[in-house]
């Protein structure tokens, strides 16, 4: 009997991938739209610049904490259910931002929006459960690329709204998009039947949350509070103690939040290391490009572009990420995701080489940024495929949640490191300290070196194995057992 073709599938099935991808793009847009507002928010809210910066920090912290927690909840209670809940929290945060100018409400609302960081790992897990193997690779690659696509779209969109309309309008627009996204997911996405039964590890979730908050708070605020200050030293010390106790507790828990025995396997652990390094290398591109092109012309290198023009400079990178996601899937299918990850990291390093060669001409700045975005697409598309091939089907959302967490930690570390380099290499222009071109070049060199380290980590990952799609049968099951036995040995 002939199998029904793609056109015979119900409309809902055909819309699953576009709906999930649009959710990922919307999540990235939500995280980005506040950036053009930051310089004006002290005047608009009556708060200090340090307080206003918490509108970014709160989202980072809540996203880092909630991503592995919601991933585990999705594996246990249903991925579509948890995905919908995270989108609802994101939309509620946007509505609160649209209704208020009180900085306390705005920070709390941005913390709610951090829940959306779990959208990508939950969606990838749904795609694994619902799609046949021949469609899974390209869908996962597209889903991974939505982070960069949304970030590239969010900045110019927000800049246009800020320039030509009241800033609350931006949050009303994102609220409407969020409500549409919730409705689309509920209608078009099936609830996955793959579950990991057991009791939720509340103690493990609290321990991980405490450790991550201390770590990311220290990394994010170290430049402002002083890296040698008692507060930062205390936070780092607390991080080590809390995470050590959490690790001990997870190894003894019957149903741990994070399966550390799985994490310590080379195929999984090295994928997480590569994710951290790639997140560091990728994030420097957006941070440095935006500052570089907006620098005053009096510096001798700055182009003094507007916020809208700055966003448009990053837009080609977002388009490239969309176009190259199927290319990444084809490379992974032919050579394996390990090779794709290594290639992506090498391309990122090449992009920074272009930035070091010339950061004065706009077309070369855009070219270098786009090359970095291309490499990021290859790397980010390969990471979840590596995880999917290395973990049981019942743990895909939590494992991908940890992988996204490692990217987040890498991005936070990148932000702190880039800020430290640029502050150290600044000179006064019109009485205001502005980073020198040498400082920017050092930041590019640092990010490029980290990208090469990510490439080395990728090449160290053991060779690809058949996907661990739940209950293996026949040869696949035997191969999976063999690989696991080899890794344990």
General description of the model:
The chain has 489 residues and is mainly alpha-helical. It contains 19 helices and two strands. The protein has helices at residues 11-32, 41-45, 49-52, 54-77, 79-99, 103-113, 119-130, 133-164, 167-188, 202-225, 230-252, 260-263, 266-294, 307-335, 337-357, 362-390, 396-424, 437-460, 474-488, and strands at 426-429, 432-435. A two-stranded antiparallel ribbon has the order 1-2. Helix 10 packs parallel to helix 17 (396-424), helix 13 (266-294) runs parallel beside helix 15 and helix 14 crosses helix 16 (362-390).
Helices and strands in order:
Elements: H1 11-32, H2 41-45, H3 49-52, H4 54-77, H5 79-99, H6 103-113, H7 119-130, H8 133-164, H9 167-188, H10 202-225, H11 230-252, H12 260-263, H13 266-294, H14 307-335, H15 337-357, H16 362-390, H17 396-424, E1 426-429, E2 432-435, H18 437-460, H19 474-488
Antiparallel strand pairs: 1-2
Tell me the overall shape.
globular
Rg for CA atoms: 22 Å
Strand order of the largest sheet: 1-2
* Total beta strands: 2
Give average pLDDT, whole number. 85
Percent strand equals: under 5%
| Structural classification | mainly alpha
Distance between the termini: 46 Å
In terms of per-residue confidence, which ranges show pLDDT below 50 for 5 or more consecutive residues? 1-8, 465-489
Question: Major beta sheet, specifics?
Answer: 2 strands, antiparallel
Helicity, as a percent range? over 70%
Work out the helix count: 19
Order of helices and strands: HHHHHHHHHHHHHHHHHEEHH
């Amino acid at each position: 009997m002939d199998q029904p073709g793609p056109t015979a599938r119900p409309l809902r099935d055909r819309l699953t991938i576009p709906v999930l991808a649009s959710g990922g793009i919307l999540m990235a847009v939500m995280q980005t739209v506040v950036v053009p507002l930051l310089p004006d928010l002290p005047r608009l809210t009556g708060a200090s610049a340090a307080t206003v910066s918490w509108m970014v920090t709160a989202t980072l912290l809540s996203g880092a904490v909630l991503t592995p927690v919601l991933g585990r909840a999705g594996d246990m209670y249903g991925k579509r259910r948890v995905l919908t809940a995270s989108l609802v929290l994101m939309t509620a945060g946007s509505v609160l931002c649209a209704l208020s100018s009180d900085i306390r409400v705005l920070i709390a609302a941005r913390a709610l929006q951090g829940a959306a960081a779990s959208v990508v790992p939950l969606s990838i897990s749904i795609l694994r459960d619902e799609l046949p193997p021949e469609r899974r690779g390209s869908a996962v690659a597209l889903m991974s690329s939505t982070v960069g696509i949304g970030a590239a779209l969010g900045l110019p969109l927000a800049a246009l709204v800020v320039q030509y309309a009241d800033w609350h309008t931006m949050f009303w627009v994102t609220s409407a998009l969020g409500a549409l996204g919730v409705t689309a997911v509920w209608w078009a996405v099936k609830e996955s039947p793959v579950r990991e039964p057991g009791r939720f590890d509340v103690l493990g979730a609290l321990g991980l949350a405490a450790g991550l908050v201390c770590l990311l708070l220290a990394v994010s605020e170290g430049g402002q509070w002083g890296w040698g200050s008692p507060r930062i030293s205390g936070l780092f010390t607390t991080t080590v103690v809390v995470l050590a106790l959490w690790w001990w507790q997870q190894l003894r828990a019957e149903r741990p939040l994070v399966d550390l025995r799985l994490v310590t396997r080379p195929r999984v652990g090295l994928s997480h290391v590569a994710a951290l390094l790639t997140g560091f290398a990728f994030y420097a591109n957006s941070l440095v490009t935006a500052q570089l092109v907006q620098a005053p012309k009096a510096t001798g290198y700055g182009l003094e572009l507007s916020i809208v023009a700055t966003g448009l400079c990053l837009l080609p990178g977002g388009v490239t990420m969309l176009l190259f996601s199927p290319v990444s899937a084809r490379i992974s299918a032919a050579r394996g995701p390990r090779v794709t990850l290594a290639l992506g990291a090498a391309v990122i390093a090449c992009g920074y080489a272009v930035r070091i060669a010339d950061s004065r001409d706009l077309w070369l700045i855009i070219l270098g940024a786009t090359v970095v975005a291309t490499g990021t697409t290859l790397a980010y598309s390969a990471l979840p495929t590596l995880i999917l091939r290395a973990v049981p089907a019942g743990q895909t959302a939590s494992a991908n949640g940890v992988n996204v967490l490692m990217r987040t930690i890498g991005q936070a570390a990148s932000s702190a490191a880039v800020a430290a380099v640029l502050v150290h290499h600044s000179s006064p222009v019109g009485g205001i300290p502005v980073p020198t071109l040498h400082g920017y070049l050092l930041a590019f060199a640092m990010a490029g070196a980290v990208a090469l380290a990510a490439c080395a980590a990728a090449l160290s990952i053991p060779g690809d194995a058949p996907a661990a799609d739940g209950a293996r049968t026949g040869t696949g099951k035997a191969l999976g057992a063999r690989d696991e036995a080899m890794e344990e040995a």
